[in-house]
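In response to the reviewer comment on reproducibility (Comment 2.3), we provide here a single inverse folding case reported in full, input and output, so that an independent group could reproduce the run without further information from us. The structure tokens appear first.
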């Protein structure tokens, strides 16, 4: 069965970006001129996803407005002949976006479970909004290709430094076939020094629908939350779940330094601003160096 549906959890509070996120969803913070969630939606579309369900929460209305038609704005841009901008604000055409609210902040596993009726009995994708991936072949498409080969759940992973392992879900690999790993265990946020490897889960998943039944009765895990990783660990006990070390650069926009790095990287990707941004960076660095002496 093809992977045509995706869940994007977007109910988090964004406390790392307060006060910016006091009255605005963190998913709407812009990287250059696009909200972070739009990068995620575009990756899903480029990977062949046809229906997206965004799991929202209180104060997230701006996300729905963003992916809706904006008649007055579009009409205004059209009348002024600003056709380039008009193209950029139009809602993405090839995908339907649906919304459901997570009524209590009970963790990622619970957010995914909230979309169970929308998913039904199909394999589906999960994309986390804090992880933006830039690659020639979209990250999610790489995972879908692996799903098509194996008919099994596939979790996107990347190597992280030892000291960062406690921030992620970590896999303990038992066998490797190119970039694909058979997994012995999945552990959510292992204590420092206790990670079984440096292969961290990076916010991209293809899951088979049995995961929803496991989430039905998944108890609390790390941080007192219902963890998706814990349900994946249980799924793996009955049906193999693979890790796949995807190609491309992953940026963490859920963290302040990561957000700044992503902004610079995305600005440099744009041919209309690459040279200006690069010279601005050199100038800032030179001034910072000069002020040290
Ligand atoms: C979540 C997942 C974790 C994963 C991480 C990737 O954690 O629970 O397994 O490694 O996303 O960004 P969070 O960052 O929401 O705490």
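Designed residues, in position order:
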């Amino acid at each position: 069965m093809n992977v045509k549906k995706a869940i994007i959890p977007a109910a988090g509070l964004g406390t790392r970006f307060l006060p910016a996120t006091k009255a605005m969803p963190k998913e709407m913070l812009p990287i250059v001129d696009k909200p972070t969630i739009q990068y995620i939606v575009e990756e899903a579309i480029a990977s062949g996803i046809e229906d997206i369900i965004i799991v929202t929460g209180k104060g997230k209305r701006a996300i729905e407005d963003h992916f809706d038609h904006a008649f007055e704005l579009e009409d205004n841009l059209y009348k002024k002949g600003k056709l380039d901008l008009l193209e950029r604000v139009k809602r993405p055409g090839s995908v339907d976006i649906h919304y459901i609210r997570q009524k209590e902040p009970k963790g990622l596993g619970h957010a995914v479970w909230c979309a169970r009726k929308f998913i039904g009995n199909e394999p589906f994708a999960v994309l986390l909004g804090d992880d933006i991936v830039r690659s020639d072949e979209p990250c999610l498409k790489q995972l879908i290709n692996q799903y098509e080969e194996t008919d099994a759940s596939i979790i996107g992973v990347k190597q992280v430094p030892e000291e960062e392992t406690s921030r992620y879900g970590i896999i303990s690999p038992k066998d490797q076939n190119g970039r694909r790993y058979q997994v012995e265990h999945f552990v959510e946020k292992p204590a420092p020094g206790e990670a079984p490897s440096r292969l961290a889960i990076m916010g991209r998943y293809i899951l088979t629908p049995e995961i929803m039944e496991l989430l039905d009765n998944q108890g609390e895990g790390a941080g007192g939350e219902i963890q998706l990783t814990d349900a994946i660990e249980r799924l793996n006990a009955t049906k193999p779940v693979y890790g796949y070390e995807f190609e491309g650069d992953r940026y963490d926009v859920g963290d302040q330094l990561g957000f700044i790095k992503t902004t610079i990287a995305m600005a440099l990707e744009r041919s209309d601003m690459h040279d200006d941004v690069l010279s601005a960076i050199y100038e800032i660095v030179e001034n910072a160096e000069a002020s040290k002496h």
